Amino acid sequence: MTGVAPLLALLGHFVLWSLLSVGGAIGLLPDMHRYLVVEQHWVSNAQFSSALALGQAVPGPNMVLFSALLGWAIHGPVGMVLATAGLVLPSSFIAMGYFRYSRIHHDRRWVRAMREGMAPITVGLLLSSGWLLARSDATSWPRAALVAATVALLLRTRINPLWLLLAGAILGALGWI
Questions:
Q1: What whole-number distance in Å separates Cα of residue 23 and Cα of residue 89?
Q2: CB distance 87 to 63 below 8 Å
Q3: Which residues, 6 or more positions from 44, have their beta carbon under 8 angstroms from its beta carbon?
Q4: Opening angle at CA 101, ends 95 and 102, nearest 5
Q5: H-type helices in the chain, by residue range?
Q6: How far is CA 12 from the centre of its chain?
Q7: What's the CA gap between 74 and 92, in Å, rounded?
Q8: Which DSSP letter does residue 20 get?
Q9: Where are the domains of the chain?
Q10: CA gap 156, 151 in Å, rounded
Q11: Helix, strand or coil for residue 3?
């Protein structure tokens, strides 16, 4: 990736994703994957998944770390700065402005509509992200069965997801998945 145009494209897409990050940037994974992996081929599927896993594993603002890792993989330190600033700054300014305004004008109809209308959008984006992650991890029948069993247990029982995470870690450490 050389020249200014790809850098502007990288920044522009991260700014766009920032503006669309209702409920958090994790809901944007399908579109990020589509653009960065499938269309531009800037990172591989493995790099994308590894950046997400590392960003989620370390303490701190995980999507900021994820975007920084993707930016670094795409264009080194400059890509890291552009991706991180593009994802963080626009949504931060909008959120600050909205909360400042809604604190003063909490009884306005559009403020209530914004507050109540964002929940279904957030759920839909999170479900699409979950689908992308499950689809990319179900690479064999045992893994697909494990993903299906995990989803079924989470939907049908009140089991703490940490127990399922522990079970997956044990199965992985034993080499069974």
A1: 16
A2: yes
A3: 37
A4: 85
A5: 4-20, 29-33, 45-57, 62-104, 109-137, 141-156, 161-173
A6: 17
A7: 24
A8: H
A9: 4-117
A10: 9
A11: coil
Residues 6+ apart with CB under 8 A from 40: 9
Q: Are 76 and 68 in contact (CB under 8 A)?
A: no
Instruction: Enter the tokens of residue 176.
Output: 């069974």
How do the pLDDT tens digits run along the chain, 177 residues long? 667 888 999 999 999 999 887 767 777 888 899 999 999 999 998 899 889 888 888 877 888 899 999 999 999 999 999 999 999 999 889 889 888 988 888 888 888 888 788 778 877 877 877 787 777 777 788 878 888 888 899 889 999 988 988 888 898 888 877
Is residue 155 within 8 A of residue 148, CB to CB? The reply is no
Amino acid of residue 162: L
Contact predicate 55/65, CB 8 Å: yes
Q: Which residues in 61-90 are b (16+ Cβ under 10 Å) and which e? A: ebbebbbbbbbbbbbeeebbebbbbbbbeb
pTM over 0.85, yes/no = no
CB distance 19 to 94 below 8 Å = yes
